[in-house]
Amino acid sequence: MIQYMLRRSLIGIILLLVYVSILFFLIQLALPGDYVSQFAMGLSNAESQIARETLGLDQPIFQRYLVWISKLLHGDLGISYSAWDVGMPVKDYIIQMLPASILVFGIGTALAFSIGIFLGKVSAWSKGGLLPGVITVSGIAFYTAFPPWLAFLIITFVASRIGLPVFGIASSFRIREPAFKQYEVLWIMLLSLSLIIAAVILINFLLKRFDKKTIPGLLVFILIAVSWVGSWYLMDIQLYALEISKGAILPIITYTLLTFGEVMLLMRTSMAETVHEDYIWTARAKGLKESTIRDRHAARNALLPVMSRMLVSVPYFLTGLVMIERVFNWAGVGSTLFYAVGMQNITLALGMLIVIGVLSMVVRLVLDVLQFYLNPRIREKNIYI
Amino acid sequence: MEKQEAINFILQRLEKNCSESEIAEELSQQMGVPNDIVRKFVDRVAAQNAATTTPVPSSTVQIESLPEPGRAESEGGELPVEAPAPKRGVDDSRILLPVYGKKLVTLNSSERMKIWLQSSWKRFKESWRIFSRNRLALVGLILLLIYVMMALVHPLLMGTVWPKGIYNPETGHDMDIFPHPSGISAKHLLGTDTLGRDVLSVLMAATGPSLMMAFTATITATILGTVIGALSAYYRGMIDGIFSNLADISLLAPAPLIMVIIGFVLDIDPVKFGLIFGILAGIGVVAIVLRSHALAVVSKSYIQAAQVAGGGSLHILMNHVFPHLLPLAAVSMLFTVTGAIFASGFIAFLGLSRAQLNWGSMIYDAFTYEGINGILPWNVLIPSALAISLFAASFYLIALGLQDVVEPRKVERRLRSSA
Q: What is this model's ipTM?
């Protein structure tokens, strides 16, 4: 398993390099002009020539590529272009922008998976009635909703009534405390969240091993949420963290609504096939509780096709994330990518694309592990679908 | 001169007891081919003629060969009009079908065409029965038909009923109404936007490009995905490795994201947009999904039978693998069209493709002009947002129905479980 993961990530890194090289040429050759040419109004010819030389844009593209890729292999993503002074290293951009994206993407995806799988399970299990139809239609409606439109609806009808901050994170804090470094708080928050999740998984594992019991799903969520908020108070960052999480609610809700539909529809179809398997009847005949049959016998088997389909679908969720970040002006990887592409800031754009690629690779790796956990028959041979 | 004619010619001469060398000489003069090559051919035909002494069953229904007009002219009277050669001279363009024991029935091309049409009509009826059982799929089909109607009717309406000055989707303005945006009225069924354009007209004008984009993306992704999936499943090895890794790379940056980035900087027209999206999705997601289906098809026994019967790789791929993959391709590709629609809508929403009419740019306009006069034109926002969502939904719903058609086993199970 570990060997398999190592090999997979090694292949992934090689693929990432190839992908980045393709993008390097694609972006530079497709775009008209370069970074300096958009300031052509304000600069004289000599000045723009100097600017090109300092940025290294006067060299042929192959030479630039070699310089850039050799830096990349040493772990240096280069320096973001800037017309006036020395730009910020791309690495710093990533450190500052990544946590905000991970927060929305991670929590949103986890929520979408749980909600989608639960609703699909329930709607396939219930016989007749209004519920399955309503769930299916609403799932399709959310799946095909235009992201900016959904965001707009949520802002007008939910956020403005409750009084949630819509754009950006904690702008009031930046005015009051100029030294406020939002990304540091975000990193601490993410770290504590992942530690808490690991702890909960460990506790669950131990309980299962010694007591043959597990914590029920809803309780796990409540436990994680409560201890996460508690950890803010322990580390004395509650002022900032609460403000940040207030700003993050809207993007997370929009992202969850956009993505849970697909999971739910897949789960429903897959569950509807499982319902009439023989082992379900056997479980009924044994006299097990309906909820036990549904959760332990039907749902676990129905999950397999959903997970394998998710392997190709989750990268598409990242597009939704980028759109949402742009719409909510959420200071994450997606909005930085738009800014960089718009300015033809090649190194920055490539850095952000690398981050997105790594994110999707990590997610696929996690899904692979989940598949191993759910279905021991699966080996690397038929890892696709 | 075709092979069959040459054989007939040789057989005739052989009956007249000419020697083989004489026939060869005569033939080589007629065909303009060196003598020794023709000699080998004549020898082979003569040997076969000597070997096949068993007569054709007497009950065989012999049908006289219909001289095809093109061939009769090309012969130019060079060969005498002849009775069909007694043993081997049966026209090859007809297929012999054994019916009821020894009686043979021959079919010509028009009859074969008829049978093919009948069988495909039957298959279509069966598929339609399965498709129409899914109510959501029917809704999707009706939605798509409405969109096609909208695209087709708009130029007609512009030409006949709607005056150009008022209803032009880009520059129209209604002087009679003040202030704009106005609500729903008899003259403007969906009202007007802030610039005084008729919302319904803009909505309908934006349908055409979107349809074109969606169809281009669909067709490109289907063709590419099917070919790549079939090739990598059939040949495995190197080809499979290359295409799998390419697909993995394209998953690192999903097609809609790349399209949004491209559209962010370049103003590309819908057809090009669909083409690029189709290529990106075709080598990526669609290829991955289809490869796994193709693996199942390739392992079927009829592929082995075709290989044993001596079919070439190209023949097997074209006649046995692709036909089984195409319906599946239609399904998986329809799922990806949603991404294309949203990507193009999002670019328009950012106000980057101002030259083109798009539902996304309608939303962008609505938000932009809100900043000017402070009125949020709901009669622009709701129709355009609904249009883009329902357009994506129609493709998705049709895909759901097609999935039932392609995988009937699942439908049976589902029906059983719901009963």
A: 0.82
